[in-house]
């Protein structure tokens, strides 16, 4: 997480932009995630891996005034971007660098902990889950979103057709081993109850450049970046061959685990 991939929010913003421009579901992902939160009017909330702060920036008018919000990320670059995005609208939010495997808060500190598409980055997930449970109050909830096994599968296939060696070298740079299919059993080892909710969506991408930017933000850059022009031409040809659009499955959802 401290690597080049996560030194700042630039790669993340490219990925967010693709979803924002070409999602078929009119309900934004961050708006949907926020709607899954079921918390009292007075609550202390910790987000692990807050990135650029998009969950809060895109739901500013919905945040109860008596929530005490703690935002954290392992990347100082991400935290700087989150601070820039939220400093005027959420001046009371507390931002800090936190490793999910060693959360620097006492037991029973929070009504809720949120990990939005980040838990699969954690090297020792069971240790992190034990820490999350520790800092939750009795009756507290852990909200963890992730993708399913079919998530953006068409994009992986496209990259594989373009360059099999590049795709095999690592689509996400690291394995995704916390999915909608296996996350419930992992969470069930630490929490009293777990439920899953799925977000229905797909992308209809009609412009090559944003898709190329997305691919270059995820595939190993030293291989793909120098072939941007070739990749752009390939994506355009694929788009034209499919009636002007590339369909990409969005298989996302959230787990709600209770203490």
The main pleated sheet reads as: 7 strands, mixed
CATH-level-2 architecture: 3-Layer(aba) Sandwich
SSE sequence, one letter per element = HHEHEHEEHEHHHEHHHE
Specify the overall morphology. globular
Give the distance, in angstroms, between the N- and C-terminal Cα atoms: 28 Å
Give the helix/strand class: alpha/beta
- Please provide the count of β strands: 7
Describe the structure.
- The protein is α/β, with parallel strands linked by helices.
- The chain has one domain (4-151, 172-201, 251-258): Vaccinia Virus protein VP39 (Rossmann fold, 3-Layer(aba) Sandwich).
- The protein is 37% helix and 24% strand.
- The chain contains 11 helices and 7 strands.
- The chain has helices at residues 10-22, 29-36, 54-57, 76-86, 125-135, 153-162, 164-169, 183-188, 208-216, 221-224, 228-241, and strands spanning 43-48, 67-73, 94-97, 110-116, 136-147, 193-205, 246-258.
- It has a 7-stranded mixed sheet, with helices on both faces.
- The longest helix is centred in the C-terminal third of the chain and has 14 residues, at 228-241.
- The two termini are 28 Å apart.
- The model has no long low-confidence stretch (mean pLDDT 90).
Task: Describe what is shown at a glance.
The protein is built from eleven helices and seven strands. With 259 residues, the protein is α/β, with parallel strands linked by helices. The longest helix has 14 residues, at 228-241.
């Amino acid at each position: 997480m401290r690597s080049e991939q996560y030194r700042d929010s630039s790669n993340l913003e490219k990925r967010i932009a693709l979803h924002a421009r070409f999602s078929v579901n009119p309900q934004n992902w961050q708006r949907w995630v926020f709607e899954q939160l079921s918390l009292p009017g007075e609550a202390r909330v910790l987000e692990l891996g807050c990135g650029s702060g998009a969950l809060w920036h895109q739901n500013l008018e919905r945040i109860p005034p008596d929530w005490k919000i703690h935002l954290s990320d392992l990347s100082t670059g991400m935290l700087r971007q989150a601070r820039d995005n939220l400093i005027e609208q959420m001046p009371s939010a507390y931002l800090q660098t936190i490793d999910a495997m060693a959360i620097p808060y006492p037991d029973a500190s929070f009504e809720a902990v949120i990990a939005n598409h980040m838990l699969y980055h954690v090297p020792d997930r069971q240790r992190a889950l034990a820490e999350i449970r520790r800092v939750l109050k009795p009756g507290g909830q852990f909200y963890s979103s992730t993708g399913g096994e079919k998530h953006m599968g068409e994009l992986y296939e496209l990259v594989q057709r373009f360059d099999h060696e590049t795709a095999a070298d690592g689509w996400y740079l690291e394995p995704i081993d916390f999915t909608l299919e296996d996350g419930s059993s992992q969470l069930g080892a630490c929490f009293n109850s777990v439920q899953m909710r799925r977000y229905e969506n797909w992308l209809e991408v009609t412009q090559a450049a944003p898709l190329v930017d997305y691919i270059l933000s995820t595939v190993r850059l030293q291989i793909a970046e120098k072939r941007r022009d070739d990749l752009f031409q390939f994506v355009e040809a694929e788009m034209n061959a499919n009636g002007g659009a590339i369909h990409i499955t969005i298989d996302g959802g959230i787990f709600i685990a209770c203490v």
